[in-house]
């Protein structure tokens, strides 16, 4: 197949959109339906909890909060307690979904996820160090963020071969570095067994302490890194043709791979530092989106962000309500939902092959 035709097939043509005609309208309707479902999930998550707030009161509380009016009664529950938690879940889920799609594209591997380069293990080690050292709880996310970025830096350094970053070496270095950091974290926990519960609360994912300050901290990372990934979506389409073909078309493959990994790792590190390690959102969401919306990264990445945010908001709602008055770690819910669903997708893929 000629390179120009291959580019059109893979959605990396020179047009300004992902396509026109009936197919584009179908994608637009599907995206609009997904957006409506996500908004409904947000409203339900803000309304339901240990104290249910009627939907009209929920909308009124959000409106009063947006306008900066004095809050009273249920407005306080809606705007100061639940809505920031839901906003953080939406932001973290969108970050994981977007980065999962970018990782799967840059590695051309459907099993890639945002934690591939050791982000989760680095965050876990950072959080463990902060807890074991007895540092203030406000320092835990910062140390976790530093651990994530350090882990990615070491993985990239080990994977580099001259000026190249071979995908296989990247994957292997990420797995090895992650395993080593996890072992160190486990050893530290064995030394201070009385702090295990606090560390597990982080490693299993938890949005319970989400507030407007956390949202404001994660948002710049998501906008900067996520915006970079969206700008590179067409280049990711070209990369699906293979490194040799992409290079022949003038694509700087190694530079692209490095930028995508750094941007996605930065977004993921910020997300997990304030929400803990939440599994399967970044792995399952792009798979589902790819089956319904197709493999064009110009569509895949933003829709994966939208679907990932909705999935995490619903998961957190289940975590808060299934075992009331206690809460489940949201990472447990996403794993229980995402694990079987991912196995189903693998089974369907095998049957279709």
From TrEMBL:
Gene3D superfamilies documented for this protein: ABC transporter involved in vitamin B12 uptake, BtuC (1.10.3470.10)
What keywords does the record list, in alphabetical order? Cell membrane, Membrane, Transmembrane, Transmembrane helix, Transport
Q: Which Gene Ontology terms cover its molecular function?
A: transmembrane transporter activity
Residues passing through the membrane, by range: 32-51, 83-103, 115-133, 139-158, 170-190, 218-237, 258-284, 299-319, 328-346
Q: Its membrane topology, per UniProt?
A: Multi-pass membrane protein
What domain of life is recorded for the organism? Bacteria
Q: Which InterPro entries match?
A: ABC_BtuC-like, ABC_transptr_permease_BtuC
Keyword Membrane, does the record have it?
A: yes
Give me any GO biological process, just one.
Answer: siderophore-iron import into cell
Q: Which Pfam families match?
A: FecCD
Q: Which GO terms describe its cellular component?
A: plasma membrane
Q: Where in the cell is it found?
A: Cell membrane
Q: Does the keyword Transport apply?
A: yes
Q: Which family does it belong to?
A: Belongs to the binding-protein-dependent transport system permease family. FecCD subfamily.
Name the chain's protein: Iron ABC transporter permease
Source organism (scientific name): Deinococcus aquiradiocola
């Amino acid at each position: 197949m000629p390179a120009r035709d291959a580019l059109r097939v893979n959605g990396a043509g020179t047009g300004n959109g992902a396509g026109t005609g009936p197919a584009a309208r179908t994608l637009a309707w599907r995206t609009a339906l997904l957006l409506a479902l996500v908004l409904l999930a947000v409203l339900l998550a803000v309304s339901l909890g240990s104290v249910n707030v009627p939907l009209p009161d929920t909308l009124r509380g959000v409106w009063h909060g947006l306008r900066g009016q004095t809050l009273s009664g249920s407005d306080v529950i809606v705007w100061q307690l639940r809505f920031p938690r839901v906003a953080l879940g939406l932001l973290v889920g969108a970050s994981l979904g977007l980065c999962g799609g970018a990782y799967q594209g840059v590695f051309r591997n459907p099993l890639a996820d945002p934690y591939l380069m050791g982000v989760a293990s680095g965050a876990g080690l950072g959080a463990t160090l902060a807890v074991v050292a007895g540092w203030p709880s406000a320092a835990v996310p910062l140390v976790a963020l530093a651990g994530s970025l350090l882990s990615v830096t070491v993985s990239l350094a080990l994977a580099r071969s001259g000026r190249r970053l071979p995908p296989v070496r990247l994957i292997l270095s990420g797995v090895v570095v992650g395993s080593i950091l996890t072992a160190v974290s486990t050893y530290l926990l064995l030394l201070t067994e009385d702090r295990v519960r606090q560390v597990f609360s982080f490693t299993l994912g938890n949005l319970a302490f989400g507030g407007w300050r956390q949202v404001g901290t994660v948002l710049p990372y998501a906008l900067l890194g996520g915006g970079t990934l969206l700008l590179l979506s067409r280049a990711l389409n070209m990369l699906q043709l293979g490194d040799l073909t992409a290079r022949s078309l003038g694509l700087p493959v190694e530079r692209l791979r490095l930028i995508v990994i750094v941007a996605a790792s930065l977004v993921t590190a910020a997300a997990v530092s304030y929400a803990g390690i939440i599994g399967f959102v970044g792995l399952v969401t792009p798979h589902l989106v790819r089956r319904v919306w197709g493999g064009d990264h110009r569509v895949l990445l933003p829709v994966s962000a939208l679907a990932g945010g909705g999935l995490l908001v619903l998961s957190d709602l289940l975590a808060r309500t299934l075992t009331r008055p206690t809460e489940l770690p949201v990472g447990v819910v996403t794993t229980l939902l995402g694990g079987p669903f991912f196995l189903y997708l693998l089974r369907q893929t095998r049957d279709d092959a």
